[in-house]
Design goal:
The complex is a heterodimer of chains A (about 110) and B (about 110).
Chain A: E1 4-7, E2 10-14, E3 19-25, E4 32-38, E5 45-51, E6 56-59, E7 62-67, E8 72-77, E9 86-92, E10 100-101, E11 105-110
Parallel strand pairs in A: 2-11
Antiparallel strand pairs in A: 1-3, 3-8, 4-5, 4-9, 6-7, 7-8, 9-10, 9-11
Chain B: E1 4-7, E2 10-13, E3 19-25, E4 31-38, E5 42-49, E6 56-57, E7 64-70, E8 73-78, E9 87-94, E10 103-105, E11 109-113
Parallel strand pairs in B: 2-11
Antiparallel strand pairs in B: 1-3, 3-8, 4-5, 4-9, 5-6, 7-8, 9-10, 9-11
Classes of the chains: A mainly beta (about 110), B mainly beta (about 110).
Chain lengths: ~110, ~110
């Protein structure tokens, strides 16, 4: 079955710097890749997603890139702010099947 | 009001006790899920249901059972709780009508088994 790895497990950046989190997946049939943000005491919330027919997607300070050949996708956060501090999860999914989540990355944005 | 509501939010129980975690949703989605979150392990699927008469095991179903009482309600039970079931539990829903659509999560139930 699908396996998703995520790196790094923890990441600290200075406010205003960029942060990059990378995930790799094993099943080339996966075609949907969401990123979730989990703030303390809350459930994960979708922040951006990408489908396999697209190489990059942006939403203000957040972007996701997908390399299907290498089977990896990355989350890019620019101009980080303290409110970006959270745990971020990537996931992969084949249409009609269940999500497989990465283990998460704890991002700390230092003032 | 939250779209996906979990009760209780926190629970401490003793080893061997039976406990039920409840989930209700107002999104009208057919698919519902129970996940367990442990530090460094991400979200692992316990059980899922695609409609009221459908129940499926996930990757870590041992020691758990579920009931789908209605489209909007999906309960998770621990028949005899043990300390290694101490974790954060999340209920989620998704819409099968759209390919690859997102999952919507509840706020979680923090369960401690002593």
């Amino acid at each position: 079955g699908e396996n998703v790895e995520q790196h790094p497990s923890t990441l600290s950046v200075q406010e205003g710097d960029s942060a990059v989190i990378k995930c790799t997946y094993s099943d080339s049939a996966s075609n949907y890749f969401p990123w979730y943000k989990q703030e303390l005491g809350k459930g994960p919330q979708l922040i951006i997603d990408i489908r396999s027919n697209v190489g990059e997607k942006k939403d203000q300070r957040i972007a996701v890139t997908l390399n299907k050949t290498a089977k990896h996708f990355s989350l890019h956060i620019t101009e980080t702010q303290p409110e970006d501090s959270a745990v971020y999860f990537c996931a992969a999914r084949i249409y009609g099947q269940n999500f497989v989540f990465g283990p998460g990355t704890r991002l700390s944005v230092l003032p | 009001d939250a779209d996906v509501t979990q009760t209780p939010r926190n629970r401490i129980t003793k080893t061997g006790k039976r406990i039920m975690l409840e989930c209700s949703q107002t999104k009208g989605h057919d698919r519902m899920y129970w996940y367990r979150q442990d530090p460094g392990l991400g979200l692992r699927l316990i059980y899922y249901s695609f409609d009221v008469k459908d129940i499926n095991k996930g990757e870590i179903s041992d020691g758990y059972s579920v009931s789908r009482q209605a489209q909007a309600k999906f309960s998770l039970s621990l028949e005899s709780a043990i300390p290694n079931q101490t974790a954060l539990y999340f209920c989620a829903t998704s819409d099968p009508a759209s390919a690859g659509t997102e999952a919507f999560f509840g706020q979680g139930t923090r369960l401690t088994v002593v």
